[in-house]
Amino acid sequence: MGVILGIESSCDETSASICINGKVINNEIASQAIHEQYGGVVPELASREHQRNIVPVINHVLTHANINVKDLDGIAYTRGPGLLGALLIGSSFAKSMAASLNIPLIPIHHMKAHVLAHFIDDPKPDFPFICLTVSGGHTQILRVNSATKMIILGQTQDDAVGEAFDKAAKLLGLPYPGGPMIDQLSKEGDPTRFAFNESDMPDLDYSFSGIKTSILYFLRKEVQRNNEFISENLHDLAASIQHTLISMLMKKLELAARQEEINQIAIAGGVSANSGLRYALEQGASKNGWKVFIPDFQYCTDNAGMIAISGYLLYEQGEFGDLADSPLPRMPF
Ligand code: KG4
Ligand code: ZN
Q: What is residue 109's DSSP assignment?
């Protein structure tokens, strides 16, 4: 029997989830709208919001799952990577709760949890599988050998792809976070209308900083000629930017699959909510004979469901942490 409480507080979502014997029962998320007006996450404000939200969010999942704190067998929490002040709230809470209940504490790596979100719902991948992990802070191609053994085959050498979506959106004058808005606008745009240079990196690595500069220069030039250029072409611009980013992601993913001779392909992280990427993966499945795994929307962006399931998988293996573990904003993979 394993009843695990998962707590996520690495960035701007305070989230809690209960996992009972490998089944995620609920996933409550308190989002922080306050950052919108600043065009990005303000770390100090994120920390204060976590402080305000953490007790109600945890109480909610316990009540909803009809679980008394005394029924808990372990507490899983995001140890890193993330914002220090934000991680401190979740980790301090998890530690004091685990200490008072005298139950194991299970520290979780946020990016590995994004990958393990694939073990929440069926169909679940078999090991080994390839996972393209795409978020606001990371872009990695992983070979996932087990719940604890993941090898980085390639990764971005500069910006993450989520960051590229957000920065491009900012250049288009869209509010933060711009990734979902680019996705939305793309649905009515022509993805081949504008071409942006895809930077190429050796092997399975990525670079996304160049595309931002190329969009910036392109827009500057066009806006000088026509002040209304962006508003008149917003859908086509969004679709063309999205198309370029997805094409870059897919090329290396296909290379990795061929190189590793693995045909089970998964995506994870916030950008895996992108409808264009989800479609490109389905196309990759029919083209390459892949079996693809795409998480449910609620488990793409930050959530505690993925922390609770990771906690359960580590709990089964007896991989526990210590009350002395401090949060790791740059937690190594
Ligand atoms: O995993 P996540 O929620 O937080 C981090 O751990 O970073 O990822 C957030 C990132 C943001 O850059 C956001 O713009 C992007 O995921 N994102 C999207 C979409 N939904 C979220 N990007 C493109 N299309 C989307 N639908
Ligand atoms: Zn994340």
A: E
H-run or E-run covering 55: helix 43-64
Q: Which of 34, 52, 39, 45 is nearest to 93 (CA)?
A: 52
Strands 139-144 and 129-134, how do they pair?
antiparallel
Q: Give nearest CA residue, ligand 1 atom 19.
A: 180
Looking at residue 93, the DSSP 8-state letter turns out to be H
Q: Does the CB atom of residue 271 touch ligand 1 within 6 A?
A: yes
Nearest Cα to Cα of residue 132 among 149, 152, 113, 110: 152
Give the environment of ion ligand 2: residues with CB less than 5 A: 135, 302
The predicted-structure confidence for 5-39, as pLDDT tens digits, reads as follows: 999 999 999 999 999 999 999 999 999 999 888 88
Q: How far apart are CA 158 and CA 156, in angstroms?
A: 5
pLDDT at 44: 92
Beta bridge partners of 30: 14
